[in-house]
Every structure is written in structure tokens, then in C-alpha cells.
Design a protein that fits this description.
Layout (H helix, E strand, L loop, with lengths): L1 H21 L10 H4 L12 E2 L16 E8 L2 E12 L4 E6 L3 E6 L2 E6 L10 E7 L3 H12 L3 E9 L5 E10 L4 E14 L2 E10 L3 H13 L2 E2 L11 H15 L3 H7 L5 E7 L3 E7 L5 E7 L4 E7 L8 E8 L6
Antiparallel strand pairs: 1-2, 2-3, 3-4, 4-12, 5-6, 6-7, 7-11, 8-9, 9-10, 10-11, 13-14, 14-15, 15-16, 16-17
């Protein structure tokens, strides 16, 4: 009898020890979009448990393409999901995605994870992850400005599994109506050096407890990486974003002028071909400043033309490598 009791005690101790090693603590930030209106703080019932021993690589040590199982909470019940680890050094992030429920679409400037049930050419439920050169607050302000004409926005702070805090913007209520939109947008903005990783989730309102929750778990696995961009061809939109951030960094007063809206300030892609992209910057002074960017190398030179003052466009002597302006 004593031996039986002792055996039971030893078995219980071993189970507690294994649970302590194998379970990742809940971050308490997996509240779905549908729950956001009724509570401002994330619930504590979500928990992602990666089944691993001390010999199993941690998230940071996983190799690109490595697959493993994890347990998430869906509608109050545990569900085993199969994740694949991806690494995008050029975009500056690593994360895990549910490869059984989503199809990965990898592009030069983003990663997209589309529901297996959707038309890949016209997806309705998907998560899109990209890099933005702007800092988190600047990016959040720009995204909010673009959505606020259509939606009443809800913004809060979430914590990733690595304890990094990020901003979350939810666009789910039609502006001024108190009615839910047919489709929800959730945008997560994660600080990444001087820039940001932006994860945008799109899904139908009826998918808030399904797609919304799965996307939230995937975003929570995200880690930022030191970007390796040397040799990467320059994409138009990325060049525009980098130049805009460069101008704002060079002139600390410029952001205030843009926000005030009293003087016209703008950036645009003026021309683009296989060898070069040209970004036109119109500052409040009335000058036309052009950034000529070599698409293959990122080498950039600057010209300026002031209508009515200078006879023609002239080189300013300013030049730099585009990638050097990326944090």
C-alpha cells in the first residue's frame, strides 16, 4: 500500500514538472474582434502550448520551413494546430502559420496567408504581413487616418508571445451607425527598430471567433529580425515609404507641418521602369525634389527644381544608399 501511494505521488510530481516545462504562459491578448466592444482588456483564457522538451528549439531557434504542433483555445476548447515557421530576413520578421488552414502566398514585399476555403486570386479571409519604414506611432496614425472616414476605430495594446507590446487597430463598426460592418479589419503594428512590422487581418464578421482568433494566435508568434536587404530589388511602394520617412527624419519639423495641413506636402512615385524608380517630393516651399533610385543597388541621388527661380532641374550633390535609411 505504501509503495502504491509513493508511486502515485511520484507520478503526480512528474506530471507537474512536465507541465511546467512544456506550457507557454498565456499572454492574455487573444481577445477576438467580436469581444473587443464588450471589454477593453484582453482575456486571460487564451493559451498557446508548444509541446517541446529542453532539447527542442525555441521559436527564435527554429529553422525556416520547420513544422511543429501547438495547442490553442478555440471557443473555450483546446485545439491542436500544425504550424510552419517562416523567416523573412529581407522584411525583418519570423513567425509561425497554420499551414493546414491557410495557404502561404510569398511576395517580394509581403507574406500573405489565405484561407483554404477562399479563391486564392480573390481572397476574403487572410492575414498579410509587411515591413514599413515608419515608426509604430507614425504608421498607426497613417492607418487610422485612412480608415476613420468609413469606420469608428477601436485601438488598444497587445503583447506578443515574446513579451513585445504592439498596437492593434480594429475597424469593425460603420462610422456613426453603431452597426457592425460585413468585413472586419484588424491591424497589428509591431515596433521593429526605426520601422514597423504591419500585420493586417481581413475576415467576414461571422468569422470573428474563427479566422479572427486564428490570425491573433499567428501574430502573437511574430519576432522581429535584423533586416538583410542588400541585393534586394527596390519595390516602388517600399521606395516611396523609405523616402517619405527619410524626409521626415531629416527635417524634424516636417511632420508637424504635414499634420497641420496648412501647407501642401506630398510624396508620389513619378516614374518607374526596370532600372529606376523616381520619387517626387513636394515640400511646403514649392520646390520639386526628386529622388532617383537605382532599382538593383538602391543607390540614390537627389535633384531640385524651383519653378520661377531655377531654370531647370539640378543635382543637389546629395546622394545615399536607400538601404542605409532602413532601420
Amino acid at each position: 500500500m505504501k509503495k502504491a501511494i509513493l508511486s502515485l505521488l511520484l507520478a503526480a510530481a512528474m506530471m507537474l514538472s512536465l507541465a511546467a516545462c512544456g506550457a507557454a504562459p498565456a499572454s492574455g491578448n487573444d481577445t477576438s474582434a467580436a469581444e473587443a466592444e464588450s471589454q477593453t482588456n484582453a482575456s486571460d483564457d487564451g493559451q498557446i502550448i508548444v509541446e517541446e522538451t529542453p532539447e527542442t528549439p525555441t521559436q527564435d531557434e527554429r529553422q525556416d520551413g520547420e513544422r511543429f504542433e501547438a495547442v490553442i483555445m478555440m471557443e473555450g476548447m483546446e485545439e491542436t494546430v500544425r504550424y510552419e515557421h517562416i523567416r523573412r530576413e529581407d522584411l525583418g520578421f519570423a513567425m509561425d502559420y497554420d499551414y493546414e488552414n491557410f495557404v502561404r502566398q510569398s511576395e517580394g514585399d509581403r507574406e500573405r496567408f489565405v484561407s483554404n476555403w477562399d479563391d486564392p486570386a480573390d481572397p476574403q479571409n487572410y492575414l498579410e504581413v509587411s515591413y514599413d519604414t515608419g515608426n509604430a506611432n507614425l504608421v498607426a496614425d497613417a492607418i487610422s487616418a485612412g480608415l476613420s472616414d468609413v469606420y469608428d476605430l477601436f485601438q488598444d495594446e497587445r503583447e506578443l508571445d515574446n513579451s513585445v507590446k504592439c498596437l492593434r487597430i480594429e475597424a469593425s463598426v460603420i462610422k456613426g451607425t453603431n452597426q457592425m460592418a460585413d468585413r472586419i479589419q484588424e491591424i497589428y503594428i509591431i515596433p521593429a527598430g526605426s520601422g514597423s512590422i504591419v500585420a493586417r487581418a481581413y475576415y467576414a464578421i461571422e468569422g470573428a471567433e474563427g479566422f479572427g482568433r486564428r490570425f491573433a494566435y499567428m501574430v502573437r508568434t511574430l519576432n522581429t529580425l535584423e533586416r538583410d536587404v542588400e541585393g534586394t530589388p527596390v519595390e516602388d511602394e517600399l521606395a516611396l515609404s523609405i523616402i517619405q520617412n527619410y524626409c521626415l527624419t531629416q527635417n524634424p519639423d516636417l511632420q508637424g507641418i504635414v499634420d497641420a495641413g496648412e501647407y501642401p506636402v506630398s510624396w508620389e512615385i513619378e516614374s518607374s521602369d526596370g532600372q529606376q524608380v523616381v520619387i517626387l517630393f513636394r515640400p511646403y516651399t514649392g520646390a520639386l525634389v526628386r529622388y532617383y533610385i537605382d532599382r538593383a543597388t538602391g543607390d540614390t541621388y537627389v535633384t531640385e527644381f524651383v519653378p520661377g527661380i531655377t531654370a531647370e532641374e539640378q543635382r543637389t550633390g546629395e546622394s545615399f544608399k536607400l538601404w542605409d535609411q532602413v532601420g
